Amino acid sequence: MLKLRINGMPVTVEDNSTILQAARKLDIKIPTLCHMELDCFNLEHRIGSCRVCVVEVSGRRNLAPACCTPVEDNMEVRTHTLRAINARRTMLDLLLSNHPKDCLTCEKNLDCELQALAQEMGLHRIMYKGEQAKRKIDLANESIVRDMNKCIMCRRCETACNTIQTVGILSGVKRGFNSIVSTASEKPLAETKCTFCGQCVAACPVGALTEMNRTYDVWRALNDETKHVIVQTAPAVRVALGEEFGLEPGSISTGKMVTGLRMLGFDKVFDTDFAADLTIMEETTEFIQRLKENKNLPILTSCCPGWVKFFEHQFPDLLHIPSTAKSPQQMFGAMAKTYYAKKIGVEASEITVVSVMPCLAKKNEAARPEFARDGVRDVDIVISTRELANMLKEAGIQFNELRNSAFDNPMGESTGAGVIFGSTGGVLEAVLRTAADWVSGTEVKDIDFEDVRGLAGIKEATVNVAGTEIRVAIASGLGNARTLLEKIRRGESKYHAIEIMACPGGCLNGGGQPYIHGDTTILEKRRLALYDEDRSKTIRKSHENPYIQKIYREFLGEPGSHLAHELLHTHYTARKNE
Amino acid sequence: MTDQCTKCCDNVSILNMYPDKKKELEKYIDSLPLGSDSDRNRGFLIQSLHKAQGIFGYLPEEIQLFVAQKLKLHLSEVFGVISFYSYFTTVPVGKFKINVCTGTACFVKGADSIVGEFRRFLNIEMGETTKDMKFSLGGLRCVGACSLAPVVMVNDKVYGNVTPKKVPEILEECK
């Protein structure tokens, strides 16, 4: 333990702590910009490049960056001497000198850490008018917009892409004024092995990385009289949307969200959770089949499009192990344009399916060529949680005052098993709930599989399913996924089933969720909210969903039937690993 | 594949076209004390790229990828290093690399007019290569021969006290 004084106040910290961490213990906020700490994933990005956290340390000639200066015993630190404040302001002046000052129209307006810092530091004039870079904006994909004119070289996106996700497409390139974070040969993202997981967008403090905003397309569809416009909402959206309206993180706003969507003008408000239940029917059938034949194990979940693209690029030799089941988003789209279209008696081409997702990779997934029939896309437009919040605000809907209402039928009814898809471990738990009943032929009462829950990056458990020992593993974050996949490749895996989500923590921490600005306690609150919602449901097993039973009775036949395969299953494509 | 022309076909494989050169590079990288840990291998990146450029003359994406895979590094990181150092080039350069020093002393002594003369004779801009792949024109900073300013380097040969009049003589010597 080390003792030091900050602004005259004594504090004791553990060895290897930084000044920033010590200050936090005293509730002293030292401004930071390039620094990113994700406590619950044991990750700290501290490169000290922005220098806005400089403080004065007695006995040292130079100011010290608090984020990467280790504490020494008996250190005397002062955080807001005139010298430190002046230095910080100069840093910020310089950062702003070549930054496009288009805050009013910037996608990150009011969500920008540079803007917030300028406001907190009381910067009221632009000190230096520096040369402005004119770099081409990368708009050539469905998910992510890269406007490197706004990059401040904090390199948080690099840590997200290379260290956390191990996708590794980003690096600092060139030098001096021209230096920038870019891809190899500065190619557009679409030509790289980018998974579009959006963790770089979640990490970016400014407007350099943002989502491809599709809200205007939704407005256009809603105002098109010839279209029947329906919406599906992913499980993780309902436990995060409220944050955009100032509600406590972890607030469950399912009912308000449904009311809000109706007020926006959607003809029907449905639930991706319904399709999640459908996914469980198909995936569990496939799992039990493989288990019986003891073939192609472990089965890997396939709901996450970031993860799907990751293994297509990086593990093309293992394409036979992921489940062939489509993701819930795509199952919903396929059902909407066939089963539902038939039910309401309209052509598939007259229905517009809008998805609200916590995810940016879902935008890319919906546009994949295989997810269309006769030129009609299964899912037409995908917007993120943040984009939905923007639309509700634009429509003047007072979200916090809304009354609760329920989803429409037939594709709005869901179970607790569908809800927990939004958290890491949820899909596997949902599979286990159904598998336990199906394998035993009874109704298993104890369905809370606590071992597979929690935000840990890799979880392992042995679960007793009707007398059979099932060994499962769960990874969230693509770096953790890689660890498990390499084990499988080496033939060292003993697992029967593995769940993988591209984003650390699962969809609740997706690239399209409200920005957490480094506060990972928000993620745990969202996670607990999902399990609260699960517990509040009367039906908590996918196969007991009456509307799911009905859809098989009326339309699909059995799980794994020929028609189910045609509509609800997919194939994977080996892609270049570069 | 090997019979395709290199000028118009993007998908031609330079590694397949020159198996001996590939072998030479591979042998060099394999002789390095590399490990399975990319943090350790990172230290051998620059010398590997140096070798690769020495063998192939330039570092197209295919060779960047080859080095990246050998060293277990991300391609983006390899490109990051190549784009940082002006020594590395991703496009083919001429047989004779003419570099005019534009450091302080040479600049003051008229490096500008020498660059202009080379541009006029070769009909190319700085950073470009003549169509016959014979000459490339570039600039460099100080070579430590300021007493001879202005200085021009052609490959490894240094010419001192260069005047615009000497430019045709220098080009004449390149055979």
How does this model look, in words?
The complex is a heterodimer of chains A (578) and B (175). Chain A contains 18 helices and 21 strands. Chain A has 578 residues and is α/β, with parallel strands linked by helices. In chain A, helix 8 crosses helix 14. The two termini of chain A are 46 Å apart. The mean pLDDT of chain A is 96. Chain B is α+β, with helices and mostly antiparallel strands and 175 residues long. Chain B has 2 domains: 71 residues, Orthogonal Bundle (Arc Repressor Mutant, subunit A); 78 residues, Glutaredoxin, CATH 3.40.30. Chain B is 45% helix and 10% strand. Chain B contains 9 helices and 4 strands. A 4-stranded mixed β-sheet of chain B has the order 2-1-3-4, with helices on one face. In chain B, strand 3 and strand 4 form a beta hairpin. In chain B, helix 4 runs antiparallel to helix 5 and helix 5 crosses helix 6. Chain B is elongated, with a radius of gyration of 19 Å. The two termini of chain B are 32 Å apart. The N terminus of chain B is likely disordered. The interface between A and B is medium-sized, with 15 and 13 residues.
Question: What is the CATH third-level topology name of the largest domain in chain B?
Answer: Glutaredoxin
- Enumerate how many helices of chain A there are, as a single number: 18
Radius of gyration of chain A: 25 Å
Known CATH architecture of the largest domain in chain A = 3-Layer(aba) Sandwich
* Alpha-beta classification of chain B: alpha+beta
Q: Helicity level of chain B, as a percent range? A: 40-55%
> Distance between termini of chain A?
46 Å
Question: Can you name the CATH architecture of the largest domain in chain B?
Answer: 3-Layer(aba) Sandwich
CATH homologous superfamily name of the largest domain in chain B?
Glutaredoxin
As a percent range, the share of strand residues of chain B is: 5-15%
The gross shape of chain B turns out to be elongated
Structural class of chain A: alpha/beta
The level 1 CATH classification of the largest domain in chain A is Alpha Beta
So what's the CATH class of the largest domain in chain B? Answer: Alpha Beta
Chain oligomer state: heterodimer
- Strand order across the largest sheet of chain B: 2-1-3-4
